[in-house]
Amino acid sequence: MRIRQLISEDREKLQNIIIRTEVFTDEEVSVAMELIDIVLGDKNQKDYKIVCAVDDLDEPIGYICYGPIPMTRGAFDLYWIVIDPKVQGQRVGSSLLDYLIEEVRGLKGRMVFADTSSMSSYDKANGFYLKKGFQEVARIADYYWEGNDRITYCKKLEA
Length: 159
What we know:
By secondary structure, this protein is α+β, with helices and mostly antiparallel strands. The protein is built from four helices and seven strands; from the N terminus they run E-H-H-E-E-E-H-E-H-E-E. It has one domain: Gcn5-related N-acetyltransferase (GNAT) (Aminopeptidase, 3-Layer(aba) Sandwich), CATH 3.40.630.
């Protein structure tokens, strides 16, 4: 496995992976694809960065989307991290997150935020963030819809 920049040939494969996780609603899939399209369509935009984990055949097996939070100094959002269900549990997500952390450090970043859901389909993601040193810093009850809280995690980076 290696990590490389997103290329246009990845689009359909990533969409397939996002759907096959069976975690995201149709609306969430649309938003994820919108961000992929922004990155592919405008090489000069600075809001979103996407890198892919690829196998030995250069086929995507996961991706991470992140970017600087406007009007902050050194705060970044982790917007999406999606791993092919076929390779979940094989450290692909950890490798992508480690890549993001090193990139953020290189940009003089101080912290990374990740928003998730309280729905049981997000239990693995929530556990992943906690295992990787993120702390829950906010929870807004019924944020997405009644019974679906928004959970915000933060990982502060050491200098």
